[in-house]
Design a protein that fits this description.
The complex is a heterodimer of chains A (about 300) and B (about 160). With about 300 residues, chain A is α/β, with parallel strands linked by helices. Chain A has a seven-stranded mixed beta sheet, sandwiched between helices. By secondary structure, chain B is α+β, with helices and mostly antiparallel strands. Chain B is about 35% helix and about 30% strand. In chain B, strands 1, 2, 3, 4, 5 and 6 form a six-stranded antiparallel beta sheet that branches. In chain B, a hairpin with a 3-residue loop joins strand 3 and strand 4. In chain B, helix 3 crosses helix 4. Classes of the chains: A alpha/beta (about 300), B alpha+beta (about 160). At the A-B interface, strand 10 and helix 5 of A face strand 4 and helix 4 of B.
Chain lengths: ~300, ~160
C-alpha cells in the first residue's frame, strides 16, 4: 500500500465548530471595576489549530467567540477588535456571572478555549458612501469598537460618522482613552453621556437617546448600528425613526443565552431566529415584530 | 428684532411655529451669553423665564442634605429649559447652573403666559410643544429609573 503524504492548506481545512482551539492570555486590562479586555494568542500548532486561527483572522466586526474557561464553562463574548498583524484576539467583557468572574481572574500565560468566530456582522461594507450613526450603551461599545476602528482606517469611504455612547456613571465608561482619541479625529462627531453625573464630570448627563435629536445625518443615506441593553435600543430605534431613518437601515445586536453557537441547541432562540447563527446583528426591520414581546 | 425672530425660528422648539406668533414672542425675548458657573435659577425661586439653549450646556440640579448637589441632567444644544413659568405656583422645581459657555434665548415667561391666556391659539400651539418636550423628558426619566446599565450580578 502506498501511503500518500497529504499536506493540508490551513485555510481550506474545515474545523469542527464544537472543538475549542487553545489560546494563551497575552494581556489583561481592567477597563472599569467590573469590565476587562483580554488579548489571546494561538498556542496550538496542529493543522486544526492553524485553520481555526485563520478563521479568527478573517472575523468580521460584530461576530463573537465562545470563550471557554477550563473547569467553568463557555460564554459568548463579542470580538472588540479585529485581529491585526499581531494576530491577537481581543475580547472585552464584564464580570456578571460565574464564568465571566472566573475569566476576570485570568492571568497572562493562562490558557482558554476559543470557538468561533460565529454569527452575523455589522454592515460596514454597506455603509460605504453613507452617513454612519453608531449608538452604544454600557458594554455595548465593545462589539461596535471594531466598526469604529474600520471606519477610522478608511475614513474617506464614509459620509458623516456619529458615535453616541451612554454609560451608567463616568467611572463605568470603557475605552475612555480611546474615546478621547476618537473625539479628536477629524470628521468624527462623538458624544458621551452618563446616566448619573458626578461633581467632577464635565460632560453630558442623561440617557443616550436624548442625543439623537441633536445630531446631524441624512436619514435617506444613513446606516445606524446599535448595541446595548434591549430597552435602550428600543428607545433609540424610536428616536431614529422619528428622525426619518428606515427600519431596514437600523442594525441592532441582540443578546440571548447562547450555548452551542451553531444553531442547534435552541438556547438563544428568538422567535424563528437563532441569535447565534442568524444574529447577533439583525436589521430592525427583520425583528421588529419580536422586540419588546415579553414572551420572546 | 428680525435676527431674533430668525434665531427663534431656527430653534428646534419653534420649528414651523406660526410666524405671527414668533414676531410677538421675539418682542419678549433676548439672546444672552452665560459663562461657566453662572446660576440661571435656584430651586424654589420665582419662575419667570423660559430658556432655549442655542449652544452650550446647563446642569439641572437639586440639593440633598448630606449629599450636596445632585446632577439630574444636562440641557444642551437645541433643548428647552424650564416649564415652571407655565405651571402654578410658578416656582422653579430645580436649580440650573451653566456648565460651559452657553448661548441662550431667554423669554419673559410671565408675559408669555399672559399672552397665552389672552390668545388660546398661541397658548395651544405653545402647549403642544411643551407637552412634546415634557413627554420626551418623562421618557428619559423613566429610562434612567430602569438603570439599564447596572451590573445585575451586583444587585441584591
Amino acid at each position: 500500500m502506498i501511503m500518500e503524504e497529504i499536506t493540508y492548506n490551513p485555510i481550506t481545512v474545515e474545523t469542527d465548530p464544537m472543538i475549542p482551539a487553545i489560546y494563551r492570555v497575552e494581556s489583561f486590562v481592567n477597563e472599569t471595576a467590573d469590565t476587562f479586555t483580554i488579548t489571546l494568542s494561538p498556542s496550538g500548532k496542529t493543522d486544526d489549530d492553524l485553520a481555526a486561527d485563520e478563521k479568527q483572522h478573517n472575523a468580521e466586526p460584530g461576530q463573537f467567540n465562545m470563550l471557554y474557561v477550563f473547569g467553568m464553562g463557555e460564554v459568548p463574548i463579542s470580538i472588540s477588535a479585529g485581529a491585526d498583524e499581531t494576530r491577537l484576539l481581543t475580547h472585552t467583557t464584564r464580570a456578571v456571572g460565574a464564568i465571566t468572574k472566573a475569566m476576570s481572574a485570568l492571568k497572562v500565560g493562562d490558557m482558554v478555549g476559543v470557538r468561533g468566530p460565529f454569527g452575523s456582522c455589522w454592515p460596514v461594507a454597506e455603509a460605504k458612501g453613507k452617513d454612519v450613526v453608531l449608538v452604544a450603551g454600557g458594554i455595548g461599545l465593545a462589539p461596535l469598537r471594531p466598526v469604529i476602528l474600520a471606519l477610522l482606517a478608511r475614513r474617506s469611504d464614509f459620509g458623516r460618522v456619529v458615535i453616541l455612547y451612554g454609560a451608567r456613571t463616568p467611572k463605568d465608561i470603557i475605552f475612555s482613552e480611546e474615546l478621547k482619541a476618537w473625539k479628536k479625529q477629524p470628521g468624527i462627531d462623538l458624544y458621551v453621556t452618563v446616566d448619573r453625573g458626578t461633581k467632577a464630570w464635565r460632560g453630558s448627563v442623561g440617557v443616550v437617546t436624548r442625543l439623537i435629536p441633536q445630531i446631524t445625518f441624512d436619514p435617506a443615506n444613513t446606516v445606524a448600528m446599535l448595541c446595548g441593553p434591549e430597552i435602550m435600543m428600543h428607545f433609540t430605534i424610536d428616536a431614529l425613526q422619528k428622525r426619518g431613518l428606515s427600519g431596514s437601515k437600523i442594525y441592532v445586536s441582540m443578546e440571548r443565552n447562547m450555548k452551542c453557537a451553531v444553531g442547534l441547541c435552541g438556547h438563544c432562540q428568538f422567535g424563528q431566529h437563532f441569535i447565534c447563527k442568524d444574529g447577533p446583528v439583525f436589521t430592525y426591520e427583520r425583528i421588529a415584530g419580536l422586540m419588546r414581546k415579553p414572551e420572546i | 428684532m428680525k435676527n431674533l425672530e430668525q434665531t427663534l425660528a431656527n430653534h428646534p422648539f419653534f420649528y414651523n411655529f406660526p410666524e405671527e406668533y414668533l414676531q410677538r414672542i421675539a418682542g419678549q425675548a433676548q439672546i444672552l451669553q452665560y459663562k461657566e458657573g453662572d446660576v440661571l435659577f435656584n430651586e424654589g425661586g420665582k419662575a419667570d423665564k423660559f430658556y432655549l439653549v442655542i449652544r452650550g450646556k446647563v446642569v439641572l440640579e437639586t440639593y440633598a442634605p448630606g449629599k450636596g448637589a445632585i446632577i439630574l441632567q444636562t440641557v444642551e444644544d437645541g433643548e428647552m429649559l424650564g416649564w415652571s413659568w407655565l405651571v402654578a405656583p410658578y416656582k422653579y422645581r430645580f436649580g440650573a447652573r451653566v456648565n460651559s459657555m452657553t448661548e441662550m434665548i431667554v423669554i419673559n415667561g410671565e408675559e408669555l403666559r399672559r399672552q397665552c391666556e389672552n390668545d388660546p391659539r398661541l397658548g395651544y400651539e405653545l402647549m403642544k410643544r411643551m407637552v412634546h418636550a415634557i413627554t420626551f423628558r418623562l421618557e428619559q426619566t423613566r429610562l434612567l429609573m430602569m438603570d439599564v446599565y447596572a451590573n445585575r450580578a451586583n444587585k441584591k
